[in-house]
Amino acid sequence: MQQRDRGALLIDTRTPEEFAEATIPGAVNVPLFSNEERARVGTVYHREGAAAARLLSVDLVAPRIPALVREVMGLCGDDRSSVIVFCWRGGERSRAVATFLRLAGISARQLEGGHKAFRAYVRQYFERGQWGRLLVLRGLTGVGKTRFLLKLRDRGHPVIDLEGLANHRGSAFGALGCAPQPSQKMFEALLWDELRHVGLEGYALAEGESRHIGKCRLPAEVYASLQEETSLWLHASAEVRVKRLLEDYPAVEQCRDQFRGPIQALRRRLGGERVARLLALLDEGDWENLAGELMLYYYDPLYRHTLPQRRIEIEVEDEEAALPAVEKAIQTVLVEPRRTGA
């Protein structure tokens, strides 16, 4: 990844389907085979053996070699000095593409072990836990934790936007208005790509999350790190929180039907009468009262149940006026000795 940071072009030669599931962050997909072609080659391999599969591979790939090389040339631009090619485990697909590129004058190298080796490295990285301090913004729903993270990033603070990486707001309604979530493998790769910049003596800000953000699961070691430090607890009135919630979900009318299922799923926790009331507010388009009652009866009890003992409380009724207080709290936590195993 240091080579990628220095400008190397990463080429993933696997199929579009494999690439869509997970890749190395920053890689570009230049597939040697289509999804269907790879399946055909695999079938021939199992039925007729390796020699027949290789011959079919040559028949499929040979006509496309010039176009493939030109595509990579276009991606390289004027700098053809550093291209790294990989497939699943550093086998024949990436070896073939690297050979084609070198014949065309492009300095291409094969990534040893391929994506499989990268995945193993990422898992080992999380197990080692070698990153700096993770300072966590917490607070009741609607207080604006993500807003403050992004504002603090603009002011030069290192930030890891976990919900942004997961494409999910981390709640029963967290998928609404978001792009599809990445696979677990891709989420871990994206998280690794952020954490690796947080040196052991450094820090980053994050939002307090449960172990699961939608279908994405935080590695155990990262989740433990989020519990270690004194929390920055943001506080605002219910009225302000409702206003911010509605601002953060701007397209509620367009996705009204998508609210129905998550509300109905709350029946066991809230009871049939309360859920019927929420559905009635949904049908009326009374978003302000719907948001307020969801906070009052569902979200606030959940968050108050997990109120951290070690916390600095910060009033954030006025976003801009609160930023200096949040930054002061960050410095207060950073001068504390680092806590581990909390």
Please give a structural write-up.
The protein has helices at 2-5, 16-21, 35-48, 50-61, 65-76, 92-103, 114-128, 145-154, 162-166, 184-195, 220-226, 238-248, 256-264, 267-270, 272-284, 287-305, 319-334; strands at residues 9-12, 28-29, 83-86, 108-110, 133-139, 203-207, 212-213, 216-217, 231-235, 311-315. It has 2 domains: 2-123, Oxidized Rhodanese, domain 1; 129-334, Rossmann fold (3-Layer(aba) Sandwich). It has a 4-stranded parallel sheet, covered by helices on one side. The mean pLDDT is 91. The longest helix is centred in the C-terminal third of the chain and has 19 residues, at 287-305. By secondary structure, it is of the alpha/beta class. Helices cover 53% and strands 11% of the residues. Helix 7 crosses helix 10. It is built from 17 helices and 10 strands.
